UniProtKB/TrEMBL annotation:
This is Dihydroorotate dehydrogenase. Residues 4-266 form the Dihydroorotate dehydrogenase catalytic domain. Gene3D superfamilies: Aldolase class I (3.20.20.70). Its EC number is 1.3.98.1. Its cofactor is FMN. InterPro entries: Aldolase_TIM (IPR013785), DHO_dehydrogenase (IPR050074), Dihydroorotate_DH_1_2 (IPR012135), Dihydroorotate_DH_cat (IPR005720). It comes from Conexivisphaera calida. Pathway: Pyrimidine metabolism; UMP biosynthesis via de novo pathway. One of its GO terms (cellular component) is cytoplasm. GO terms for molecular function: dihydroorotate dehydrogenase (fumarate) activity.
């Protein structure tokens, strides 16, 4: 469960793989527990110059700089409206102002296929707690669907503030988006790093968040590629996890494999259900204190 959304399994496809919802019919058969479409932007946006993606040869990481290309909210909403939701669909929306977010959230709110809405706050306007608070208050007034704020590692220094803001406004948190880097390997000269280098940061963010709030809906993202890692994230307090770089390294079978590995890892530790595994470590810590 993520808030009131029932997920067939806790491993979903992260934002960025299917930005415009063009691939849902085919890719939603891959065995994921939920499917994120986006980031969807208010207006049509063109991609940054090539190369936009670099896949490491000797480590489990990638660099990307697409620049949030999107067909824009009108055509993408129309496409989502035509989908037969086989697995729950979460829309990830990216606004560059409060009014853009408002347009995007209203559009997603009107689509019965959309189970939840994730807010990609890449725009620096929402970097500080004041901007984040304004966005959270606005968003929660626009929809009754579950909302998640997707944070970047650059929000790490205000993580606890972000949790308070999200909690006060009834939102959940997704950690993390990619690590910002400068690089000659991409056409834009900068980009985001995904994959294994994010994994420890994500786990540490989960622990920090659960120290502040044991109720807030929480998604773990970043370098999760095996069932053992999924279990580690659940034990650290995640309600569900998302993966993207795993698909680049393990192929479309990644979701089925991770689910099988998760069951094995749970069995080895004697957990009978995902909810039993969830937050195990944070509860154990509380008991120990
Ligand atoms: C090629 C690529 C494109 C991405 N595009 C988006 C995007 O449009 N919106 C977004 O919120 N995150 C985007 N992300 C970030 C991922 O959703 C995820 O947060 C990040 O890659 C960490 O997870 P991973 O290590 O499993 O890939 C993108 C990542 C990659 C690798």
């Amino acid at each position: 469960m993520l808030g009131n959304v029932r997920l067939p399994n806790p491993i979903g496809l992260a934002a960025g793989y299917d930005k415009d919802g063009l691939l849902y019919d085919r890719f939603s058969r891959w065995g994921m527990g939920f499917y994120i479409v986006g980031s969807i932007t208010a207006h049509r946006r063109r991609p940054l110059p090539r190369p936009r993606l670099y896949r490491s040869r000797d480590g489990l990481w990638m660099l990307n700089a697409f620049g949030l290309p999107s067909e824009g909210v009108i055509p993408v909403s129309r496409r989502i409206n035509g989908m037969r939701a086989r697995v729950p669909i979460i829309s990830n929306v990216a606004g560059f102002s409060l009014s853009e977010f408002s347009v995007l959230i209203r559009a997603m709110d009107s689509l019965p296929q959309v189970s939840a809405i994730e807010l990609n706050i890449s725009c620096p306007l929402f970097d500080d707690p004041a901007g984040m608070d304004e966005l959270a208050a606005l968003s929660s007034g626009l929809t009754r669907k579950p909302l998640l704020i997707k944070l970047s590692p650059r929000h790490s220094r205000i993580l606890e503030n972000a949790v308070h803001i999200a909690e006060e406004n009834g939102l959940g948190i997704s950690v993390y988006n990619t690590i910002p880097v400068t690089t000659d390997l991409l056409g834009a000269g900068r980009g985001g790093m995904s994959g294994l280098p994010l994994y420890r940061r994500t786990l540490s963010a989960l622990a920090r968040i659960r120290e502040v709030s044991d109720r807030i809906p929480l998604m773990a993202i970043g370098g999760i590629m095996t069932g053992v890692q999924v279990l580690e994230a659940l034990e650290a307090g995640a309600d569900a996890v998302q993966a993207l770089t795993a698909v680049a390294f393990r192929g479309p079978i990644a979701f089925r494999r991770m689910s099988e590995e998760l069951l094995e890892a749970m069995e080895a530790k004697g957990y009978r259900s995902v909810s039993e595994a969830k937050g195990y470590r944070s509860r154990a810590l509380v008991r120990a204190n």
